[in-house]
Amino acid sequence: MKGFRVVMNAQRNLYRTVPSLLAMILVGMLAGCSSNQPTAQQKQNYSFWPLPPDEPRVQYLTSFQRSSDVTGKRGGFDEMIYGKEAELPITSPYSLAMWKGKIYVCDTRSAGVTILDLKQKVTRIIGRSSAANVVKAADIAITPDGIKYVADTGRGAIVVFDAQDRYVITFAPINLNPVGIAIYGNELFVTDLKAQQVKVLDRGTGKVLRTIGSPGIEDGHFVRPLSIRLDKEGNLVVSDVMNARIQIFSRDGKHIAATGERGRSYGDLARPKHLAIDSNNFLYIVDASFNNVQLFDEHRKFLMYFGSAGDHPGAMDLPAGVFVDEDPEDIALFQKYVHSAFQPERLVLVTNQNGPDRVAVYAQGHLLPGKTLMDVANVRASVGTGVETKAPATQPGILPIIPEDAGQKSPSTTQPATPTTLPVGVK
Confidence band (pLDDT; 50, 70, 90) for 11? Predict the structure, then answer.
């Protein structure tokens, strides 16, 4: 009987415990689910640029810092059964590209290239096999059919992957120190930080065909060239970091123009990093000193900026990379973050080497027909001015026009100039 009472007491304890355990599991599941849902306060906190009275043309959408931002956090029940997955952090992202729902991140503190697959909701890394062995990815270029070319500054090589992210081949010309890469036809255009020039490689063999530029401060020369992209005419656009300017060349190496100068006002440059060019031939320049991205039109006239230092949504902290994505299917992946009054036309992805928004996503677009500033007035976050020093404007974020007078610097003083933004009809 004594043994029977022990068994019965154990059963009673078990019956009392099971509902409690199930309740705890249910709470954990609900907590896990709710952790992925934005709060009402978060839903009411949107960052737009520029500020009124201009129409919003850029909205901050969301960001990624670790693998769970893509895969989602598991609830308590899932973790009890399957265990906790190791987080894959994005530590120091430098450049990036997006293709077919996947964001490819070059993280200078992690070997390989990190892939954020937003369609499959998985993350993984390529370039960590003995054959591929990407040591320090600085930039990536992707062809329309999905061939990836990674500038590995750690090995001094270009590592190639196919459309399925499988390793293909490595090009390692002697003394190559690649930090930026672009593709046109059968040629690769690579910025070489050590040689301070652009090296043109055969896309099939990796052989160096010719070089463009040399060290120096005059037009056609570089001091630490970094990013390289191609505009609609097929010209090379290169960020000349220490000269605080952008230089433009034909593909055969003829110097066409230089734009930008060192300064602390809108339209000036301080530490230009990576570049992007959209289908309008508009130029996006990351400036790590201003903690923003500045936009210039096809004539390289300053239009607007977005981003700034601070703690508001979409704030930047040592930004380095920028990529423009105009694929409608990729845009649709972020539609849930877009304000109901805003129409996105393209995505702009930006990497930050510090802060929580390591891979930040913005939408460039316009208000929907029939919508006005009043439709977003009550949900706008307060954003910074986006320049290194305190802006003179009474309304932070308004963009002064750079004076047309040749050789004149933009004013750094008192009254806000007339704002200029993207033309309304431009897509």
Answer: very low
- How far is residue 175's CA from residue 208's CA, in Å, rounded to a whole number? 11
Contact yes or no for 192/180 (Cβ under 8 A): no
**24, pLDDT greater than 80:** no
Domain ranges of the chain: 1-33, 49-377
Is the peptide bond preceding residue 396 cis, with omega within 30 degrees of 0? no
CB 242 within 8 A of CB 258: no
User: Which tens digits make up the pLDDT trace of 89-128?
Assistant: 899 999 999 999 999 999 999 999 999 999 999 999 999 9
Question: Cα angle vertex 139, ends 194, 290, to 5°?
Answer: 85
- Count Cβ atoms below 10 Å from residue 219 Cβ, excluding itself: 14
User: Which structure tokens are listed for 88?
Assistant: 């894959």
State how far the alpha carbon of 16 is from the alpha carbons of 12, 21, 38, 148, in Å: 6, 9, 35, 58
pLDDT at 246 exceeding the cut of 80: yes
* Maximum distance among all Cα pairs of the chain, rounded to whole angstroms: 104
H helix runs in 35-150, sequence order? 40-43, 68-71, 76-82
CA atoms within 13 A on the CB side of 93: 34
Rounded Cα–Cα distance for residues 272 and 227 (Å): 9
| Beta partners for residue 238, in sequence order | 228, 247
For residue 18, give the amino acid letter: V
Planar angle of CA 78, 83, 88, nearest 5 degrees: 105
Residue 59 identity? Q
SS3 state of residue 182: strand
Alpha carbon distance, N-terminus to C-terminus of the chain = 85
Please check whether residue 63 is in contact with residue 360, taking contact to mean a CB–CB distance below 8 angstroms: yes
Give the right CATH number for 49-377 from 3.40.50.2300, 2.60.120.380, 2.120.10.30, 3.40.50.300.
2.120.10.30
| pLDDT classification of 202: cutoffs 50, 70, 90 | very high
Q: pLDDT tens, 205-226?
A: 999 999 999 999 999 999 999 9
